[in-house]
Amino acid sequence: MGVVAFVIIFGLHFWNLSQYAITPGNATPVGPLVKIKGVASAQHPGAIMLADVDLQSLNAWTWLMLHFSSHVEFVSANQLVDPGVSTDELVAQGFLQMSDSKQSAEVTAFRSFGWKIPATPSGAIITGVQSSSPASTAGLRVADQVLRLNQTTVASACDLVRATHRLAPGTEVNLDVARAVISKTGLISYRAPTILKLRTAKTPGGLASSGCRGVTGASGSYLGVSLEDGTRFQLPATVSINTANIGGPSAGLAMTLTLINKLSRTSISGNLPIAATGTIDVHGNVGDVGGVAEKTVAVQRAGAKYFIVPQVEVATAKGAAGPGLRIIGVSTLAQALRDLRALGGATPVALTAPH
């Protein structure tokens, strides 16, 4: 009987599932992770924390064991990646999302004080690669930046979509690509542009609309990538945020609030222990994120008294919160700053006057 049980348990360890578990991670003060050079900054008492979660791929044994644990959310692979995209890209996608999130936080923080931040289009950035597609065959990867297709300059995602769509399927093309290098901790850098050759395919039927003007129907060519616009911003200072081994976009709001706090004369948080989650865009809009219930557990364990979350996820956070943790829902950065002032925080006043 014991041998049979051992064989069953041993087998469960090797029965891999297309499921993942989200469990509470850590709530980390962002201030110590931030360095600003070129403008004045300050370190205020209190803490603004980001919250993360742990994402674990499951075999049958870990799935069984985690069902006896509390604060676990089970998700399928299809909930984490687009159809046809391998889950092998999850780590790279998470690091790209964090890189984008840091850029948006920096731009939004400086703009909130009145700085003018020039923006320049810089190409089409690959966010996902379809398996068995021309892009996959050519070796394109997440975070690679496409700058040109044949003689056509690519300044945005739609530039690449339109240029590809105009070609007949089976056309051989040259892509001018800045290849991304992603470190083990998630830092993204780029090599000098190089030429990749690939042959386009016919656009599959049932593919979702690209949303790009002038691209209709399933005719034309297809590379097999999902894309976002590349943009280069000219900041008035050099900012670095050490988010080693943390992926995803959900720290955007916490990083933005921390940057504003460090650039401001007095504390915008009222020196209170505050946590925040939510995406941020360069217009100051706060978007929803995953794992809010598990993040709520993490911030409560860390001693936060207030947790700012996307408005649409207030109910989820409240359902996971225990006594002593107040949930605040917001949809914009401006709303978050108003709520912090209501808690005793100061109106942001820049240490260095914007120009």
Structural write-up:
The chain is an alpha+beta fold. It folds into two domains: 26-82 and 236-342, 2-Layer Sandwich (Ribosomal Protein S5, domain 2); 119-232, Pdz3 Domain, CATH 2.30.42. Helix content is 27%, strand content 30%. It contains nine helices and 20 strands. It has helices spanning 2-13, 60-66, 90-112, 134-138, 157-165, 252-263, 292-301, 314-320, 333-342, and strands at 16-29, 34-37, 47-59, 73-76, 119-129, 145-149, 152-153, 172-178, 180-182, 188-190, 194-199, 201-202, 221-222, 225-233, 238-241, 273-276, 279-280, 286-287, 306-310, 326-330. A six-stranded mixed sheet has the order 4-1-3-16-19-20, with helices on both faces. Strands 5, 6, 7, 8, 11 and 14 form a six-stranded antiparallel sheet that branches. A hairpin with a 5-residue loop joins β9 and β10. α3 runs parallel beside α6. The longest helix is centred in the first third of the chain and has 23 residues, at 90-112. The model is unreliable at 1-15 (pLDDT under 50).
Set down the secondary structure blueprint.
Layout: H1 2-13, E1 16-29, E2 34-37, E3 47-59, H2 60-66, E4 73-76, H3 90-112, E5 119-129, H4 134-138, E6 145-149, E7 152-153, H5 157-165, E8 172-178, E9 180-182, E10 188-190, E11 194-199, E12 201-202, E13 221-222, E14 225-233, E15 238-241, H6 252-263, E16 273-276, E17 279-280, E18 286-287, H7 292-301, E19 306-310, H8 314-320, E20 326-330, H9 333-342
Parallel strand pairs: 3-16, 16-19, 19-20
Antiparallel strand pairs: 1-3, 1-4, 2-15, 5-6, 5-14, 6-7, 6-8, 8-11, 9-10, 12-13, 17-18
